[in-house]
Amino acid sequence: MKKQKNRPDPFPLRLQGTDGIRREVRPARSKEFKNLSPQQVFLERGFITEEFMEVYTFAYIDHLMKAKKMRAGETVVVGWDPRDVHGKFTGAVVKGILKAGAKALTLGIVPTPLVPTYMLYKNAKAGFMVTASHNPKDQNGIKTFCAYRGMKLLPENDIELTQAIRKVDPARLKIRPLKGTQKNCRQEALAMFQRFTLDPENSWAEPAGLEVYKKFVLVVDPANGSLSQMAADTFRQAGFGQVIEVNGKLDGNVNLFSGVGDLEGHSIITSKMIDKRAGNFRRHKAVLKLFELGRKLKTNILAGENKVAGAVFDADGDRFYRLEYDPFKDALIVLSGDETAFLQAMYLIRRDPGRYKNARYINTVESDLNTAVAARDLGLKPKLAAVGDKWILLQTAFLMVELRLKVLKKITKREPPASLKQQWNAIRKNGVLNVDAFHKIETAIDALEKKHPPTKPIDTSRLLPFAVGSEETGHNITTGWLDLKKGGPCPVFFGNGLKSALNTFAATEALFNKKSVRAYIAAIHKPFKPGFKETLYAYYIKKELFHKDSAVWKKIKQTLLGDALDAGFKGRIVKFLEDPDMLYISLTPADGKSPTAGIFVRNSGTENKISVNLRGNNKEARRLKKIGESAIRLLLGTLKDLEDHHYKLELDVLSQLAPGTLPEERLILDKNSRTRLLAEMGKQKLIELTAKGYRLTARGKWYIASSQPDAERVVQAR
Questions:
Q1: What is the pLDDT of residues 663-700, one digit of tens each?
Q2: How far is it, in rounded angstroms, from Cα 102 to Cα 537?
Q3: What class has domain 21-186?
Q4: Cα gap 13→407, rounded to integer Å
Q5: 165 has which bridge partners?
Q6: What residues are paired with 585 via a beta bridge?
Q7: In angstroms, how far is CA 243 from the centroid of its own chain?
Q8: 364-401 core/surface letters (b: 16 or more CB in 10 A; e: else)
Q9: Cβ-count burial of 480 within 10 angstroms (0-12 exposed, 13-18 middle, 19+ buried)?
Q10: Which of 340, 378, 331, 385 is nearest to 362 (CA)?
């Protein structure tokens, strides 16, 4: 890409966030982008155009070919969620692959885990999922998968891709011929995924459990996304008694009053929360349907004849939350990724304690701190990872190589070559943030195994000391088994909402089916003793201002450590190699020896927001909330992007509410932004909905007062 004169170089070291790229979308022909390249639109204006999608996929495949990691004509798998109803962005993704000279195996609308699974099935060299996952429908993005075990890009791979994108000249790319070919592989891929999903070893279906499933009245909410119809059909085939799908339209309205995003931060949904005037879930069809069915079948539920539950996903199908109707409280129990993962772990270690004792239970810093304690009590070895399921996948790669080296030593009855040991020791000591390093070392192990074949086949994968990987937001990972055309069963480790759902239901029915209805509900509601967790958000910010040792980073660190000390804690900075820009502070009571709480601040890798995350014991909740409020107000006051169009709309709404409460219909607000903006202002706790309408919160009143000059300017412009 040619730099224009007098224009500063906008390129960061890495374009990718936690999981690929995500931004609001705009057509490339927009007048506001005149004389800007697709890269400049992405970096300077914050939008993804169809031309940028083409640049992105072309750059990645062209980079792989130049690095001799794939050849012209080799295959790339492509799938997408249904938000791009006109296919302009998905078409651009395919075009970029074809212009690079590869063969695109297109799958159409599919869940994210199907893409890397089919990649391994076809031995493809790369994969793209076109999605913005749980983000609103006005956004899109790309998740990228590598040939090595279908893993996602790690930071060093991100850097290489960023440099490749930087070098693409859009004008030349525009006239470049389509050298590659395209093949529709949807039917084969869907059939493969169905076999994989319903395989008893993957679904954990037990013969006795199938009869129990008949008691379920199950509401399935695919968030108008990739699992529409597919998830409901799967549950029917698995033996669930009655399956009702809501939010299953492929009309582009993904995650709209649906999906897991609305459930985050809630452990229970009460009847007040579906109030037609002021309930946060008054428009969430799955929640409303579950209350309707639960109340209708209450007598049957209490008699143990029925169970009313929900399986809720996000737009691309890699996240899952479970809902369960509680007939005693007329409420819905919300099981996040923490609870569902722990239930799965309970089941695995109960089913096969010899195999899973001391196996890894990997969860990210977002999780309730008590999950690690509870996992240890089960006999598992908990390990903390940075946010993002790719870091869980990285841990499984470490475990896989460790196991293969042990088996190699057993087969050859000698130590692995010194060069191989040195290479692996360097990775273990220094960490590794490059998928290629793992690929290289496993290729060396493959070569040694060919020279020294075992007298009896040894399936190393089934000896892997891994139980569950979990993100509180609903990405759960357990080992899956994929039957390849050649080579037999292959282990796969992908965030798979459908597999997680089947596994969670299998776990609860195997563990708790013989309990009374009251005991069953109690066991599901609190499979482990929960701690305190709360997340505070600031949206529409300049994310580039917050990074390790930046002025804002240092100010937040100083504030948090000072406030923690005032609250009776000793704070210690904990570094994460995977996410060096995250500020994580471990908190130990002044009179204690071990940490009991933690606070971390990080930019979202998927949305334009930053969060202050509070985790600890329930008795520390009040102190943690006070520390968190100070931190989020500092972020709101220093990071807001004054040029962001949503920031301006936010100030406008706050100004309208400053005099007092207003019904939603009286708010002057663009209808295209209304739903998203009000939801995100609610998540920032700037406004709240009452029976009389929206009003400012205490934080909202502080915020509008501190932003008075900007707010007045917005009102005058309106």
A1: 999 999 988 889 999 999 999 999 999 999 999 999 99
A2: 42
A3: alpha beta
A4: 39
A5: none
A6: 573, 599
A7: 26
A8: bbbbbbbbbebbeebebbbebbbbbbbbbbbbbbbbbb
A9: buried
A10: 385
Correct CATH for 532-632 of 3.30.310.50, 1.10.510.10, 3.40.50.720, 3.40.1280.10: 3.30.310.50
In the numeric block, which tokens belong to residue 291?
Answer: 């209350």
Task: Please tell me the distance from the alpha carbon of residue 252 to that of residue 672, in angstroms, as a whole number.
Answer: 14
* Intervals of CATH 3.30.310.50 along the chain: 532-632
In the chain, CATH 3.40.120.10 sits at: 21-186, 199-336+499-525
**Lookup: tokens for 253:** 């309205």
| Element of type H or E holding 56 | helix 50-66
3-state secondary structure of 77: strand
Its CATH class, for the domain covering 199-336+499-525, is: alpha beta
Q: Residue 453: what pLDDT?
A: 82
User: DSSP letter at 45?
Assistant: I
pTM to 2 decimal places: 0.94
10 Å CB burial of residue 155 (0-12, 13-18, 19+) is middle
Q: CA 278, CA 276: separation in Å to the nearest integer?
A: 6
pLDDT tens by residue, 67-96: 999 999 999 999 999 999 999 999 999 999
Could you tell me which of 710, 568, 691 has the C-alpha nearest to residue 636? 710
- Residue range 645-717 in CATH 1.10.10.10: yes
* pLDDT score of 567 more than 90: yes
